[in-house]
UniProtKB/TrEMBL annotation:
The gene is hemC. It comes from the Bacteria. It comes from Rhizomicrobium palustre. The porphobilinogen subunits are added to the dipyrromethane group. This is Porphobilinogen deaminase. One of its GO terms (molecular function) is hydroxymethylbilane synthase activity. Keywords: Porphyrin biosynthesis, Transferase.
Amino acid sequence: MAESILRIGTRASRLARAQTQMVADMIAAFGVVTEIVLIKTTGDKILDRPLADAGGKGLFVKELEEALLDHRIDIAVHSMKDVPVQMPEGLGLGAILPREEPQDVLISPHAARIQDLPEGAKLGTSSVRRSAQVRRARPDVSPVMLRGNVDTRLSKLDSGEMDAIILARAGLKRLGLGARAVNALPTEEWLPSLAQGAVGIELRLSDSFATQAVARLNDEKTEIELICERAFQAALDGSCRTPIAGLARYDGKTLSFRGEVLAPDGSDAIATQFSIDIDIYGKSEAARAGREAGEALKPKAANWLAL
Ligand SMILES: NCc1[nH]cc(CCC(=O)O)c1CC(=O)O
């Protein structure tokens, strides 16, 4: 019966496929038959410029959401940091997997820490957040445009085109490249992207078969962290050119959050933080606290949010 096969949509990058295979294996262990469908997204097609210049958010996600709405796939596996907070009508998250370590890592033959990069070093990134953070820490270091998937970026570093790159530790580990992910940037000095390190599963909210097939994959602690982070992001409502960073940590008792909006040139930054005790059912408290943190920061960061 066709409807008993769960069709799983993913981008074709090696990282996206690794994450999707992990999800498919877990679902198969519950006795559900799966099929993986590769879908090319705008973010995979545009490789010659920063995605902030390509006009928008969700460029790794949109075609997957269209495939869900067209019933070409039943679930979509995403890196949650690429997923806009507003989802199309009828779609929602069916599960959020246990979070991998959320930090960024510095990869460079010259230095293990940002402070130790050589004077005037060329750092490859196309992220507005990472560029602003580098300029803030090291005004002499120039971010240079670097697009492409993780393997492409590593090979450009290795060929000497750049002196350093910054990547998410989670992606490197999932690709079996943990050996390159040793120099984590401490979150006290360098906040990651909101939702970094978390993989989520999107589905049609009306699809009870898919909903049941993935429900057991959900990690409630990660879910609380992401509810908080995404509420912060939604309240700020920045543009794709606004450097925003933040991280929530929840240990089953205390939810701690720090978030930051930076001037794109790194000349300034505004941060906020809180710590509250909530229980594992405290989703609405997590959302409210995240939203209030975003609302408190919003007027102070207004110039950078409207870019
Ligand atoms: N924007 C691309 C992207 N989306 C998710 C990850 C890493 C995996 C994750 O954060 O879950 C990456 C690569 C990177 O930033 O190094």
